[in-house]
Sequence to fold (328 residues):
Amino acid sequence: MSAPVDTQTEQGSAGADLETLLRVTGQVRDNVERVIEGKPDVVFAAVVVLLAEGHLLIEDVPGVGKTQLSKALARSIDCTVRRIQFTPDLLPSDVTGVSVFNQNTREFEFRPGGVFANIVVGDEINRASPKTQSALLECMEEHQVTVDNVTYQLESPFMVIATQNPIEMEGTYALPEAQRDRFMARVSVGYPPQAAELAMLSTHTSTNPLDDLEPVTDAAELRKLIGIVARIHVSDAVQRYAVALVSATRHHGELSLGASPRATLHLVRAAKAAAALRGRDYVLPDDLTSLITPVLAHRLLPTAEASMNGRSTAAIVESVVAAVPVPD
Fold:
């Protein structure tokens, strides 16, 4: 006969776990906001993707702090961090690694590339050729790298934080659909409020705030936080709502390409992380709708007519949310 389950003990443990998560993530967010001022929503989205084991794409015009945001998040965690500067002459082997013949041992040795780290900062990813961009496909989806028929596992946690300028900028290559679909969310930093920009003049001109950042957590604790997020409850009604939202994009008249099943998984995982950051151990429909634009918009392709009418994918996603009934 199995022992009775102590519900109060389980609830107390879950509450303690959430308190730990809120404390640690609060320190991470405070750290990042010391560098990126006046953008709490962007920082919140970045931490959500971190806890949901996703990858983050930061897209905006030059000079608004895309790289600063990615480096601040990386420096807040005591783990391995590698930066890859994507350029037109970057090779796939620079990203994944290469086998080199050792004259002394008379054998080939594998030399890891830039993706062998817990957090990989890919700066200006769309300035590399499509061939080099595709080197990230396997590692982002499967957390592994295959070189010369040998597969190497990437250590957990693993997160790619990539920055890119809008594709209309000179000297850029548009990310292929398969690449965009592997990013859990895309955010835009945007220009700071005038008050934040004025404060930046006094804090960023004499010193670099990144130099003063200290790690507030490590890879082992981050793995525990990811485990806490994985246990967040998602009811059947909320799951059906997530499926209905994503399915609606596949039949929308203004879209030639809707969101994939991977997008549904990413949306639910991100909603679980958002619920945890809001102090709940269950997901509400609001958690889904608050993240649906950063999670879905970059995966969608508008029709030629919608593009000519100036309809952005973000606006189309908003119309989808308005049309799909919210569960009671």
Notes: The mean pLDDT is 88. Residues 175 and 311 are 20 Å apart (CA to CA). Residues 7-35 form the longest helix (29 residues).
